[in-house]
Amino acid sequence: MAIENPSREEIGVILKKAKRIAVVGLSNNPERTSYMVSKAMQDNGYEIIPVNPNADEILGVKAVSSLNEIDGHVDIVNVFRRSEFLPEIAREFAEIDSNIFWAQLGVANHEAYDYLKEKGYTVIMDRCIKVEHAMTK
């Protein structure tokens, strides 16, 4: 099926309700997009959970190696990995307590999208969470 994102209004509601965002592929390099976007979201009051097996701490928060290591509910899983990794991340996402699978701008995968939609999840792909958040203010 074709990738169809929720409307801007629906995305606005999602971002207003969300509190915890797990960021898969969050870099500890302040010059990387994942770091800048996640820092901006953290500065706007969201709890950021870094998911990066190669880092101990990012943005002052202990990093986890995988989504399965996160305790408690996660509102959004925001993915900063290449598109070919999305099916694997989607399967891991389906194992945790989360609502929204979000792939950043330039990242999309039909296999992952179809898999998650068939399971009833809300899926957003090829959209920047920081840009969408700015549009809802």
What does this structure look like?
The protein is α/β, with parallel strands linked by helices. 34% of the residues lie in helices and 21% in strands. It has helices at residues 8-17, 33-43, 86-93, 110-118, 129-136; strands spanning 20-24, 47-51, 57-58, 61-62, 74-79, 98-103, 122-124. A hairpin with a 2-residue loop joins strand 3 (57-58) and strand 4. Helix 1 crosses helix 5 (129-136). The longest helix is centred in the first third of the chain and has 11 residues, at 33-43. The N and C termini lie far apart (32 Å).
Lay out the secondary structure.
Blueprint: H1 8-17, E1 20-24, H2 33-43, E2 47-51, E3 57-58, E4 61-62, E5 74-79, H3 86-93, E6 98-103, H4 110-118, E7 122-124, H5 129-136
Parallel strand pairs: 1-2, 1-5, 5-6, 6-7
Antiparallel strand pairs: 3-4
CATH topology annotation: Rossmann fold
Q: At the fourth CATH level, what is the homologous superfamily? A: NAD(P)-binding Rossmann-like Domain
**What's the structural domain tally?**
1
Taking pLDDT < 50 over at least 5 consecutive residues as the criterion, the unreliable ranges are none
Integer average pLDDT: 97
The level 1 CATH classification is Alpha Beta
Overall shape: globular
How many helices? The count is: 5
**Counted beta strands:** 7
| Order of strands, widest sheet | 2-1-5-6-7
Biggest sheet features: 5 strands, parallel
Strand content: 15-25%
What is the string of helix and strand elements?
HEHEEEEHEHEH
Distance between the termini: 32 Å
Share of helical residues: 25-40%
Q: Could you say what the CATH architecture is?
A: 3-Layer(aba) Sandwich
Using only C-alpha atoms, the radius of gyration works out to 14 Å
Which structural class do you get from the secondary structure elements? alpha/beta
